[in-house]
Specification:
binds zinc ion; 2 domains; 182 residues; globular
């Protein structure tokens, strides 16, 4: 989904987006919009100070975000898990973190594959001198979100990995989350 000006207007009309005295409320979340540039600066500083542990921190923060989304979306009503998944992806889309979708979902085998296309981080990361020496997938914040939401809908502990990443030259980012055996 692309959030165009027209979509923005619709969201305001339907009260999905409320603007009030310096407060922004989006889908029930109180927002503080941060430019992707600034996000990237935050990640650069983290990386300079912590090395690759920075990505563990991002993963943990992503999980916190996932839990917050679960609490907020789940609060409204008891929705079926597929619908919950779709809604959590819609929320991420609207936040401007790229085009999120489900490539595969199997509740029986406990496997969910997520995709992010057009991530706004790709260009910023590629332009970063500080991150340029990295040879790894970098979207651990998003992985943390997927990880937490998958734990919730699969009602189980999970393992997650980013198998493809635009930062490494893939055409999209792909995340595989699987139920942990045992
Ligand atoms: Zn990636």
């Amino acid at each position: 989904m692309v959030v165009s000006g027209e979509n923005m207007k619709k969201m305001v009309k339907s009260n999905q987006l409320e603007l009030d005295d310096g407060d922004i409320d989006l889908l029930g979340f109180r927002m503080g919009m941060v430019p992707i540039y600034t996000w990237t600066k935050l990640i650069e500083r983290l990386y300079e100070m912590q090395g690759e542990e920075a990505f563990d921190i991002l993963f943990e923060v992503g999980k916190e975000h996932g839990q917050y989304a679960i609490d907020e979306i789940g609060k409204e009503h008891d929705i079926p898990r597929r619908q919950f998944l779709d809604q959590s992806l819609y929320t991420a889309d609207v936040l401007g973190l790229g085009r999120f979708s489900l490539e595969k979902i199997n509740f029986e085998s406990g496997k969910i594959i997520y995709k992010i296309e057009d991530s706004p981080f790709k260009e910023e990361f590629e332009n970063s001198d500080i991150l340029s020496d990295l040879d790894r997938e970098v979207d651990d914040l998003q992985r943390g979100m997927f990880h937490k939401v998958a734990e919730c809908v699969l009602d189980s502990q999970v393992e997650s990995r980013e198998t493809h990443c635009t930062f490494k030259g893939d055409s999209y980012c792909r995340f595989v989350v699987e139920r942990k055996e045992g």
